Every structure is written in C-alpha cells, then in structure tokens.
Amino acid sequence: xxxxxxxxxxVMLDKILSIITxxxxxxxxxxxxxxxxxxxAILNFPNTKVxxxxxxxxxxxxxxxxxxxxxxxxxxxxxxFSQIDKISEGNKSINAIILDxxxxxxxxxxxxxxxxxxxxxxxxxxxxxxDFGANKVINKLDQKEIELILKYFGExxxxxxxxxxxxxxRKKKEIDTQDLVKIINKVKKKKTYGRINEATKSFQALxxxxxxEISELIFGLINATKKLKIGSMLVVVTxxxxxxxxxxxxxxxxxxxxxxxSRYIPESVKEDKRLFHCPQKKPLIASKKEIFLNPxxxxxxxRYVIRNxxxxxxxxxxxxxxxxxxxxxxxGLKL
Length: 335
Ligand SMILES: C[S@@+](CC[C@H](N)C(=O)[O-])C[C@H]1O[C@@H](n2cnc3c(N)ncnc32)[C@H](O)[C@@H]1O
Hints:
The chain is α/β, with parallel strands linked by helices. The chain has 15 helices and seven strands. The structure holds S-adenosylmethionine.
C-alpha cells in the first residue's frame, strides 16, 4: 500500500463533521482508520488530535505517513477496537469516538485477501488478529454449523442448500473463492435479481464470522462508552441490518427513561441518570448525490449519542439480547 491517497470514499463525512464539530479543536478517536478519510478530515482543522485504530496491518504505513504529515497530532495503534479501553490518551478528554464499520475498498480490491467474489485464490477474509481464515470455515466445519453462519450473519435463505453443496464438493477438493461463488450461483440461479451479487449474503456471513464482528461491535461499544466523559459523543456508521440492530438497541435502551422510576425522584434527576442523550432517533443516511458517487454508501446508517451520566453499569441486556449471535461466533473456537 502506498503512503499516498488510498481509494476509499469516507462515508457521510460531511454529516460526521457537522456532528463532532472539529472546528472547535479537541481530541477524537477514530476506531476504524482504514484509508484515513475521517482522520485526515479532522486533522485538517487546527488544534485537533486524533487517536486512530485499525486491526489491519496493511494500513500501518499510511498511518505512519499521516503521523509525520500532521506533525504527530495523530497517534495510531494497530489494534482491534474491542481493546479500546487498553489505549491511553494521557490526560486528554475525548470529544468523540467514531466507528465506521465493515471493510474498506482497498481490502475489497486486494483480490489475494478473498473479500471479493472476484478473488481467484483461497478464501481468506482475515482483517487482522484472527485465529483462522474463511477457508477453514468452509472446509472444516460441519454442515449444520455452516448453515447457522450463513443464516444468522448473512440472512441467507438458501443456507441449507448452499451448505449441502459445500459439503458435497469438499469431498472431492478443497473449496476456494471461485468454487464457493459457483456453488452459490448454482443454488440461487434465477432466484434473485438486480445489481446485488448472489454471493453477497454468504460472503458477508463468512467475513463477520472470521473476524468475530459481532463481539467486536458489542464490546467495542461497551469499552468505548467507558472512555467517554459527560458531553462526549459515540458515533457509529453501520452497513447491514444486524450491525444497525445492535447499535440501535444499545443507544435506544440506554437513552430511554427508566420505565418504572420512583415517583419521589424529580424528573430532572431521572433524566440525568440516563447513560446517553440521543438527539437523533432515526439514523442519518447518505444523500442521493453521495450514493451516486459512491454506491456502497446506499446501505450506510449513521447513529450517534452523547454521554449523559457518569454512572456506568455493565449493559448485560445488550449481551443477552444478542447472545445467540455470540454463541455462533464461538463455534470458531474449535478451528
Ligand atoms: C469502512 S473502513 C473505514 C474507512 C475510514 N473511515 C476512512 O474514511 O478511510 C473500516 C476499517 O475498519 C477496520 N476494522 C474493522 N473492524 C475492526 C475492528 N474490530 N477493530 C479495528 N479496526 C477494524 C478495517 O480493517 C477497515 O480498515
């Protein structure tokens, strides 16, 4: 990867900037550095600092280049964002923490990494700090386990038939990316139409499973919250419905008034007990113009909250609500 411009459009950048207002200066955490689109836009304002994270080592060089360019106002960590609570920001108080989920164009376009249906090589899809790649999932797990992964993480209706064909083919040969694409096309032939590739759902499911994206998101949200002071923001951009469901549930549940508050507590105090203030209940979406210029932005949803209370109780019901997804991710422990 070069240290120059990387090919990735930062999604809803104008909206992100109008929410986090870096023109007033401050310190920001960009949990998903990627091509550095958000980070650069923030650092272009004076008196700003960015602490950036990315699990993908291939961005290290570009991050180093930007660190020099912005005279050390950027500090980069090659780390997963679920570990954000281990990162020290000195005495700085954080204005906003931003997560722009999923993968980037440069990951997708590097065909040797197996994120794309056009990849020719082995199935891989590892973003960084992984224990196994997608090749092991497809070539080693039981039929039932593959079905569950496709169903839960890709909402793939044809999960049973695809898993059946995978098991059949792998008796004869190790399955690579193009074998999987062929299986999916065969199973779903003429059943889905339009611009979306037949394999999108299964590829998404494998990527989520390989990278433990559900536990990353849940523990990323929880550990990011611990770093926020009253008035700091948590901003999240999601790209599929499961991610958005998790973010929406967390923000909504912990922004709502207590359902059965004691009638002796004054209304103003009850309000203050809420962990977050949620100024915008509905997610923000990309404009028509942005979708035209950058079609993947059509699935993006932007939600944000402002920390409203110092009191932090571990959000057990967020875990309980999505426990079935965490259980499926834990199938990976046997690989
Ligand atoms: C959509 S891109 C971010 C693009 C970035 N906002 C920009 O403007 O260039 C997502 C990035 O997040 C990284 N990523 C995904 N999951 C992560 C995790 N759990 N921890 C840290 N980085 C992660 C990916 O490696 C990828 O580089």
